[in-house]
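User: Fold this, then the next.

Assistant: Folding the first:
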Amino acid sequence: MKDFDHLMSVWQGQPKPDQLSVDEVLKQVKKGIRSITQKLYWSIVAMVVTVAFAFVVTFFLAFKSAVTTIGILIVLVTMLMYLSLMVRHYHILSKRDATLNPAEYLDSLKAYQKNRSKVIGWFYYTYILLLSAGLAMYFIEVLEHSSLTFKIVTYTSIGIWFLFTTFYLKPRMFKNEEEKLNLMIDRLVRLKEQFD
């Protein structure tokens, strides 16, 4: 019995976890979401401008080869798919308010993170591959009268760009956003556990 009392005193002597301020946590979560949505917003704006430019090139410039037109159409459709995905993510993140129902917001944030990880995983590779293939097809006609050396440099550059964005840029870019989401989810989970 003496050991039990000693164990209880040690257990009760453990420091209590810091109590989180509801206002502070919600303010930090809103700030983090605002940061992600602003980044998405400007990415959407840049993509809309790029899509408009690709549209003009596709439908207002005359190309001799159907392969070139198909290449530009592949680039255009790929960018439209990525644009629709970004707009969807923007709406998911910006439509809810964390202060109205933090528990529901936490669930929606977890669902968003899970869905995003799954979709981004396969979609990003498809996006880069289609974009690279479309550019390669576009350059067939554009580089028709160029030297062999210039063609090799151009196609090698496309390959290097594909490898760079796939294996260097993508992991860093999405890891940063994933860390922000994990931090916000962790804060909301701790806040929820504080009141359970």
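Now the next one, as you asked:
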Amino acid sequence: MNQPPDEHLYSIPAPYRRMENMHILFWLLKDIGWCMVWKPLGIAMIFPTLAIALVITWRTRDIKAELAHNLAIVFWISANSYWMVSEFLGFDTIHVWGAVTGKHLALFPFLTGLLILLYYYLVQRPREVRPAQVATM
């Protein structure tokens, strides 16, 4: 049976999908390097992991939901990478201000990603859903 196309269907072109899959591979290699304390591997994988996340974010910038989530991922990878480097270079336990250590500074990009998602879900998404509900009534 032929069904009308779903206007809410989100499809990913094959080259983009391959890039996302490569992104997952690099991210896993980065975290394996971190877990196993293989410093060269962990540090080397920061650049391709972050670079592909930025390309994916740029390519999906016209879809607000994708932009918000992909920006959150960019900040997550940044925080995660900073935390890894802080452990590798031994400044994760150094107190920078009161009880705040070097590793705690990773909270800034983590919280930035969280704030982007909170803005999307509390402000942007309700604006997107409201006109669609009014139009169907």
